[in-house]
Records
---
Amino acid sequence: MKKFAPLLLILILISCNAQTKPNDIPIKEEVINYTFETVVSGINNPWGMTWLPDGTMLVTEKSGIIYQIKNGIKTEVKNVPSVYNRGQGGLLDIVLHPKYPENGWIYITYASTDGEGEGGNTKLIRAKLEGDSLTQIETLYKANPNSTKGQHFGSRIVFDNQGYLYFSIGERGSHFVNPQDITRDCGKIYRLNDDGSIPKDNPFVGQAGAKEAIYSYGHRNPQGLAINPITGAIWEHEHGPQGGDEINLIKKGANYGWPVVTYGIDYDGTTISKENEKPGIEKPIFYWLPSIAPSGMTFVTSDKYPEWKGHLLVGSLKFQYLELVKLNGDEIIGRQKIATNIGRLRNVKQGPDGFIYMGVEGKGIVKIIPN
């Protein structure tokens, strides 16, 4: 038996090493056991979506419109702030306060010209909806300085199980300046109390010069945030450069590496970093090579999709499909295409009715009906 021990050890080491690559999971072709229903058309870039208690859907259109949608009819919400509609910037995410029936607060991120310098940067507000108009608009956070660059505004919003508000802002294309510097906005995940105040236990509170709203840093362009319904952990995905889109578990005060480490290269083929891991920097739990350009993510908890329940859905802008990311706890164990060739998929959400809704550029809102 002893003479087989070295061979057994080698096989174990090979097996362990084979499991260390978080992108080494091939994607399966779709199994079509569903149909599509267009909920509403005529929305060019449906960025964010949420639902009021009566089932009315609120959808943000990047150009600066919020639609109320009920029974397939869309109407425009009035008194929406002016947005800086440039490149990837515009009207972005929208969510309800967890206690919306009690307080009526709606939270919105968008690119705004307010603040320092020319151009715009990401802003977080809250407001109330009275009839068909936003009222009581309050600014909770505005990233500075502004920039005329058109890339990497983020931005998604999520509340955790303790009632803290998290939102993301991309590094605005200044990757050698913003994401690693906690005295500067951009390339960060932020955490606030629901009124915009800064929690006393945020990781950089009291640190000289730091932006105390920062919760994690070293991000590129996070366009997915979701709360794991089982663990309560915050899951995030972000665009890499050419290759290296990531899924991360967000931890307090953690550095996620951009651009010190990356699994991708620049769009002109040049090297951004020769390292894809480094001590003190959080590794992604998964990364895509090639990039899929992820946007939107949701955990499936609905019984309407038994084969998807307990797993994660991520939209692909680049390859125009919805990706089912299969999970075993915090480990990604499989991938499958859904809704192949649906179009540039900007967002995906599970609605309060248990159905999955997709925001598709140039099409509008599409619901997945399981067979």
Note: The radius of gyration is 21 Å.
---
Amino acid sequence: MVDLSVVGILAGLDEDALADVERHINRRSFCAGAQIIEPESDSSDVYLILSGRVRIVNYSLSGREITLEEIGAGGCVGQLSAIDGQPRSACVFAVTDTVVGTLSPANFETVVKSHPSVGWNVIRELARIVRTSTRRIVDVSTLGANERVIAEIMRRAQQVADANGFAKLSPVPVHSEIAGRVSTSRETVARVMGNLARRGLVTKDDDGLIVQDVRRLEEFLSQAIG
């Protein structure tokens, strides 16, 4: 059984506190591709991702899938509806076989009130969501599709880059996932990635996409923006 200590909002809780949280959750398993949360549903449970990976998506009026985020083990989804009681604002799918711990709204409130550090961690997570959403709005408003693709690769590389600016994204980002993330087409992503490869800014090996120098990629994006 996966220990609850992997969950970010439970960070810092001792064994007794984690045991108390355990009493409030139900564990569920989802196969890869399964829908975990349905949009506009009245369900308000919070899902703690214990293992696996999930994708949060929404849909444009034309039906295009827009990827909002992918979250791995340690993350949580569904907290907004648990807090405000409003219908779900997005879909959540299991990217891989996934195990979650579910908290009903009442149990979520009990855990937050019983363990103040959890409440603070939830606030920090909501702040991260706001910052991420703000950044996406600015990108869509100010950057062209090509530049949004480059910016997405750059941000991912920055998160894992070493002191010399070398970064490896593993596995290789899927074109359709990047397209959904930055609101463009797979064809645009393929074209941009081909251009970056020809310029020597990215290369591929068997298990990842390599950015030799994130700073060069940043400079290229700055020049593209103009």
Note: The chain has a mean pLDDT of 89.
